[in-house]
């Protein structure tokens, strides 16, 4: 190896290391609290319906419009799968899915919890890596809301 090869290698390694430092958060899926979705961190790569409406991370829950919890869950599951999500965990009240970006394979987690008393589905969507998500998670929740409504209305 000559001097230029060493320089290129060092430049490439330092670029990779810098990228990892700039994009790394925890990289781990967030655990759920009892009867509530995980709170969003301070970083702006997460949205949730279980926070104050004045918070920047707030997104409205999805209206069930009289559907039973079972029927809502079937439609929600179908909408997530049609959007390219992969179901990770499913219980009576909870559905956790994973989405991966096509270009770089970044993983985002979606959590949905049915609240039959309020007749809504609470949602939380967050990126596992990075600080900013450029609105990806908010757009995902809005797309899910539209897909759910379209399935509900058919």
Write the topology of this structure:
Blueprint: H1 3-23, E1 46-48, E2 62-63, H2 69-82, E3 86-90, E4 94-100, E5 107-115, E6 120-127, H3 136-152
Antiparallel strand pairs: 1-6, 2-6, 3-4, 4-5, 5-6
Helix pairs in contact: 2-3
Overview of the molecule:
It contains 3 helices and 6 strands. The protein has helices spanning 3-23, 69-82, 136-152; strands spanning 46-48, 62-63, 86-90, 94-100, 107-115, 120-127. Strands 1, 2, 3, 4, 5 and 6 form a 6-stranded antiparallel beta sheet that branches. A hairpin with a 4-residue loop joins strand 5 (107-115) and strand 6. Helix 2 (69-82) crosses helix 3. The N and C termini lie far apart (65 Å). Residues 13-34 have low confidence and may be disordered.
Q: Tell me the major beta sheet.
A: 6 strands, antiparallel
- Give the CA-based shape: globular
Kindly name the structural category.
alpha+beta
The whole-angstrom Rg is 19 Å
How far is the N terminus from the C terminus?
A: 65 Å
Order of helices and strands: HEEHEEEEH
Helix fraction by DSSP (H/I, runs of at least 4): 25-40%
Give the percentage of residues in beta strands.
Answer: 15-25%
Average residue pLDDT: 84
Instruction: Give the oligomeric state of the chains in this entry, treating copies of one chain as homo and distinct chains as hetero.
Output: single chain
Work out the number of β strands: 6
The count of helical stretches stands at 3
Which stretches are poorly predicted, pLDDT < 50 over at least 5 residues? 13-34
């Amino acid at each position: 190896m000559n001097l230029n090869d060493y320089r290129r290698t060092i430049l490439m390694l330092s670029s990779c290391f810098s990228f990892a430092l700039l994009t790394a958060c925890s990289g781990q899926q967030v655990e759920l609290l009892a009867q509530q979705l995980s709170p969003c961190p301070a970083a702006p790569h997460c949205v949730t319906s279980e926070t104050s409406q004045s918070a920047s991370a707030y997104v409205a829950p999805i209206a069930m419009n009289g559907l039973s919890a079972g029927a809502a869950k079937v439609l929600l599951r179908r909408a997530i799968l049609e959007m390219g999500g992969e179901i990770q965990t499913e219980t009576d009240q909870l559905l956790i899915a994973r989405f991966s970006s096509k270009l770089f394979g970044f993983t985002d987690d979606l959590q949905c919890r049915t609240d039959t008393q309020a007749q809504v589905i609470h949602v939380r969507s967050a990126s596992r890596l990075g600080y900013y998500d450029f609105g990806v998670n908010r757009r995902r929740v809005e797309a899910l809301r539209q897909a759910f409504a379209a399935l509900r209305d058919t």
